[in-house]
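1st attempt posting a full record on here, be nice pls
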Amino acid sequence: MAIPRGDAIALARALIQIDSRNPTLAPDSPGEGDCARALASALDDWGFSVQLIESAPGRPNVVARIGPADAPALMLNGHLDVVGVEGMVHDPFAAEIRNDRIYGRGSADMKGGLAAICAAAVIAGGAKSNRQILVTAVADEEYESLGMHALLAAGIRAEAAIIAEPTRLAICPAHRGFAWFDVAFSGRAAHGSRYDIGIDAITHAGLLLAELERLEQTRDAGPRHPLLGRGSLHASKIRGGVGMSTYPESCNLAIERRTLPGESIEKAMREITDACARVKARHPDLDARVTLSTAQLPSDVPLDSPIVKRLERALGREEMPVKIEGLSAWTDAALLNEAGIPTVCFGPGDIALAHAAEEFVPVEEIERATNVFARVVREWCDAT
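the predicted structure (as tokens):
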């Protein structure tokens, strides 16, 4: 993949043209391997020291460095995987430019941002600096973050990090976490005419949902984060019943709880178990078992942290507005922050277009993001 050195637009288009759908989300897809190898080749041509670290068989991460390997590092990060393409209204992998926008799956989420950090690193990175720039491109961010987990397990560390998620060029120091819960209701199967012995597991699920909805109505008066607002809870999936004339013996309910920084998974689970207890106090035959299926932590970096201030200065020097916002979606920033690496999100594109039927990233935003990243890189490399 011959890409002119430091050309973010050419690199973005080349990456978008490679099908890197996450194989867990799109079982017929090739995964991230081709995209990782193409990016590694391009960065090698640009003068980076490059290695591939597998997160799973055939699913490598790219780790590329400029500067001494043992020097303090600034990490610039993006993910290689994209979601499925069903229902898209344009060719998902053509990377066509129309109306000064690049269209394609992953254009906004987040190959435009990934290209911008790579270009900025090579434009502004100081090969003779006593500091290093570390570009990482990871697999599986869209599902289980296998790539970031593998990166951290391999001992990759930095003093600070920026993830080039699509933020519309706003600095995003915080995002919510999430927890997924399963609630299994057990009733008693009986003929539909036998109300005297049947126990309706689906109705019990409905009673819990009503109780949780009452709880949800109180959140505006509860804990709030200055950038993220309040937490939230919603029912995601429900399954139960075998026939019209049968009392349902079981019902399974899936619930997602979006958590604020400072809210624990234990607190989120307790909300649901306490709601079950309130329902059971009114309906003693309720039998509900709550289990946690998966969870990811929130992310939060102080507004006066050095990485936020570096981005603010870079935006000011580019005569661009400084916007500080919370990011609605979860990202690998939470894992980096948990590992002690202060991490914020900043990049071109709109998160509202991620996973959408029409996905694009403005060419100008990639160019402006590249300029901002380059200023951050130059300041980092010039520091003593």
